[in-house]
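Table S2 (continued). Query chain:
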Amino acid sequence: MVVAHQPSNQQEKLRDIELPIIDLMAERSQVSKLIVKASENLGFFKVINHGVPQHVIKAMEDESYGFFSKPASQKQRAGPANPYGYGCKNIGFNGDYGEVEYLLLHANPLSNSTISNGPTLFRCAVNGYVEAVRELACEILELMAEGLGVPDTSVLSNFLRDSHSDSLLRLNHYPPLQLLQLVNNRIGFGEHTDPQILTVLRSNDVPGLQISPQDGFWIPVSPHPSTAFCVNVGDALQALTNGRFLSVRHRAMVNSCRRRMSMAYFGAPAPNARIACPPELLSPHEPNLYRSFTWDEYKKATYSRKLGDTRLHFFRLQSDHDDLTE
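Corresponding output:
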């Protein structure tokens, strides 16, 4: 049983909710069904026996710890994050703020100018990690397509395999806070949904991630099992599945005297890729909920708003919010 936190002015309640843990080595059709069910109900799940080599994970973790352990003056040489590079506390361009420092890297090797001149070990660790988690993300997307009954099971994964994919790798470091600062259960990274297609997250054994599948409740996500990746649906995938899969709001809390680090791969389409639900998922009883849009169009709408703003409803058909300048 886990604790679901309501807003601070309301009584805390207990919720018996845990993220599904899906073994990717189990029977394929069953794995596909479990992934679809989790994506529909919670928008989040964990995967084990995922095939990402432990030495690839360790190399990326070691290099990340090494980077964030450097003096501030050295880390700032990789910044500011505009949009790629090092950032500290300021999140994005619209005044959002958190107890976090981060390194944002483009995850397309053809465009990875952020680390092209970086130390060799760091560059190799990033490239090896990105290649492995991209393959994992593509495999999960193909399992999703199978479970949805889409004949072309690569229809979703092709977005990530595109040579111009706009995917990202974000390394987040939440430094430990002093005991007196923990009274207010400080926010490290504020509530939001991920705009991309799919997020594959790896974190150390310090808790902090919380999800909100139901308004008013925040459910802590355990960092265990330590071998798992946490996977969540992004806004673009919710649109691609015509609202069947849920892009769920989540946040990161700084509530430990130990530092927390996470490595998030955000699988995204190419800028000119068009986001439109496959016709196999539509019917007269289930008409299209969202208009077709390009990733570049959605990305601009995302960056023009604050972190916690809802964006996808601006792209709904027959919506009162079609004007993106609202």
